[in-house]
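Hi Y.,

Following your request, here is the sequence exactly as I used it, all 299 residues.
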Amino acid sequence: MLRTYKKRTSPRAPRTATTQPRRVYPTDLTDAQWEILQKGLPPAPGGGRPRTTELREVLNAILYVMRTGCAWQMLPHDFPPPGTVSDSFSKWRGNGTIARIHDALRSQVRVASEHEPEPSAASLDSQSVQTTEVGGIKGFDAGKLVKGRKRHILVDTLGLLVAVVVTSANVQDYHGAKPVLKKAKDRSPRLKVVGVDGIYEKEWRIAWVKSECGWELQVIKRTDKDKGFKLLPKRWVVERTFAWLGRYRRLSKDYEKLTETSEAMIQMAMIHMMVRRLEPTRQYPLASQKAGVGPAQAA
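Below is the corresponding structure, written out as tokens. Let me know if you'd prefer a different format.
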């Protein structure tokens, strides 16, 4: 017997104003999102030929690669040339443009969420992913049985990225924690507590964090009686961030040759998520605007 599926009757929420001469892709920036991001892009260099490529289209192409997972050379023809897009990404990674935009957006999202611009608490964890034949450093994670690289990330209580370091997969979590926390030291002046799981419970690492960073490394682990998955306080936030990153197919594996490029890809995914928080892509109606709900009922 064949199953029948009921067709969705509710229409999809309309897209926020997006000015494009071509057909819009789901990953394209809206006018409001572009207004936020263009402030962080470097101006055109003086001299030489004038710039003919629209930077908005370059960003749209990068986000398309991030979300779909396609190679640079397989970008649709209505985007700028693949070489222009990949070179722009490499240039922005090298001169710190991506990192600056990311850090500025994180503060804006925190303020919009009624938090202080900089966090006072964070969570640290790692994720092992496979690599490809592209090359670069790699190793074998004997615990997860994964040959590739390991992503060490530090996130705040909202799940927003504070720092990221990519290493070979054979680097232990408590060793990979050092470069991540050193990165976050200058960026997070209010940070006081970092939540971690049991593998970071090393006296020398806890002492190093206290002496070098002035933070408390709070080990949060389940009891021996707990079996299977256990939702742990504070630490689940970093697991959710890994799930957010998993929506971007370019991050399903580590396809990059350089670890610096891998870190920039993660920051780019977070930029896309944060700018959509500040300016949603679609206009979802309020409860009072839904069909069948009058002003008196909504009040």
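The chain has nine helices and six strands.

Thanks again,
Q.
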